[in-house]
Specification:
- The chain has 431 residues and is an all-alpha fold.
- It has one domain: Amino acid/polyamine transporter I.
- The longest helix is centred in the middle third of the chain and has 46 residues.
């Protein structure tokens, strides 16, 4: 049931949700990987990925205005294609992709957190912190999810201010020759690199889940979606330009797991390193908390539609505990067996498939959403092309990452098909 008009959220709150979702931990985790793949063309790689996100935002805008719901992406796919094995598998893929996000954030949390300790202890402490980064927020979500949630707006503000400070000071010492086209990876490698770190833009879709509670949806949602995505594109371009322009690529790659903090050293010294590391720890912790809550709620929504077992519909202490615990266990398994590249490949590939489906959903519903069909076709083609570039890069450099992505997609179908064989629940669309 919708909130009363006076309690609904406005433009700035919605933008904060989108920006917070995107900058939640992605840039801290994937900057080093982006530099390793795109070299001096890293800012261009972030731009390419951002353009794909921006085009897809058009479909999200139209669908969110026409079908405002806390179900977000799940609702859009089911409205367009019906509730069946295919859409159920797509919704499972979205849930699994959330788990990949958790693993990515936990990886970054542990990597940056370990830098506060002596080098000899860092490998062990990093592994401990990676696991603690998922387990502790799970405990918080079980008993009092609001503990970190209430601080979320402040954490978003602090990390944005720190990143803007990093950019403002860092631009003064940028060596432009490190960013010229001669230093870029070949075009196809650059685009593929941008797609592997596409996961850094995933969070804008969280705005769709707030649509039901937004004031003046027809005016607020379009402005909020586009403002959030464009701001983050510019922020990522500036941050990556400062990083590459301040530090040799080999040093950034050597410190890949905490590259942003290392990039602050040339102009801010050890104080800058610690400042960025603190921002990364706070940012990733809050992102883990928010993503855990969102993933547990997503499993609840999918189950309410009859696409997952009924026990995931149950709430304990007014929280979808079973979904939370399953999400936690699978995320812990993933973060302990995967590396940064495989996790990023899985997450980016998963969301590119989901975003392609959302563009397809808007094409299917264009008369109801009053959309320009060709724009969503461009978004669909862009997502598919981006996915193919990602697969090409993975096959060329490390085929096992392609197999891992394929396994994740296969698992989403296996869950749905197995479930349908065991339970014969009535499918329904009631999010």
């Amino acid at each position: 049931m919708s909130q009363k008009e006076g309690n609904k959220i406005g433009y700035w709150e919605v933008v904060s949700i989108g920006v917070g979702g995107m900058v939640g931990g992605g840039i801290f985790a994937v900057l080093g990987l982006a530099v390793q793949l795109a070299h001096g063309g890293t800012p261009a790689a972030f731009l390419v990925a951002g353009v794909v996100a921006l085009i897809t935002a058009y479909s999200y805008v139209k669908l969110s205005v026409r079908f405002p719901s806390r179900g977000g992406t799940v609702m859009f796919l089911d409205k367009a294609f019906g509730v069946d094995v295919i859409t159920g598998s797509a919704n499972n893929l979205l849930w699994l992709s959330y788990m990949v996000m958790l693993a990515l954030y936990a990886y970054a949390f542990g990597s940056y957190g370990a830098t506060f300790f002596p080098p000899d202890y860092q490998p062990l402490l990093r592994r401990i912190l990676i696991n603690a980064g998922i387990i502790l927020p799970t405990i918080i979500n079980l008993f009092n999810a609001e503990v970190i949630g209430k601080a979320e707006d402040y954490i978003v503000g602090v990390k944005i201010l720190i990143l803007l400070f990093f950019v403002g000071i860092g631009f003064q010492g940028v060596e432009v020759q490190r960013l010229v086209p001669q230093t870029w990876s070949p075009p196809l490698h650059l685009v593929a690199g941008g797609m592997i770190i596409f996961i850094a833009y995933e969070g804008f879709e969280l705005i769709a889940n707030t649509a039901e509670d937004v004031r003046n949806q027809a005016a607020t949602l379009p402005r909020a979606f586009y403002s959030a995505v464009i701001f983050v594109i510019l922020l990522y371009i500036c941050v990556s330009a400062v990083a590459v322009g301040s530090l040799p690529i080999n040093k950034i790659v050597a410190a890949k797991d905490y590259a942003l903090a290392e990039a602050a050293k040339p102009f801010l010294g050890s104080v800058g390193f610690k400042l960025i590391a603190i921002a990364a720890v706070l940012s990733t912790l809050s992102a883990i908390n928010a993503t855990l809550y969102g993933a547990a709620r997503l499993s609840f929504i999918i189950a309410k539609e009859g696409e997952l077992p009924a026990f995931l519909e149950k709430k304990i202490w007014n929280r979808p505990v079973e979904g939370l615990l399953i999400t936690t266990v699978l995320s812990l398994a993933l973060v302990n067996v995967g590396d940064l590249t495989s996790i990023s490949t899985m997450g980016s590939g998963g969301f590119l498939i989901i975003f392609a489906a959302v563009n397809g959903a808007n094409i299917s519903l264009c008369e109801q959403t009053r959309s320009k069909k060709w724009l969503s076709w461009v978004g669909l083609i862009a997502c598919v092309a981006a996915l193919l570039a990602l697969l090409w890069q993975s096959l060329e450099t490390s085929p096992k990452h392609t197999l891992i992505l394929g396994a994740m997609i296969g698992l989403s179908f296996l869950i749905e098909i197995t479930y349908k064989l065991i339970w014969n629940r009535k499918l329904r669309l009631n999010v």
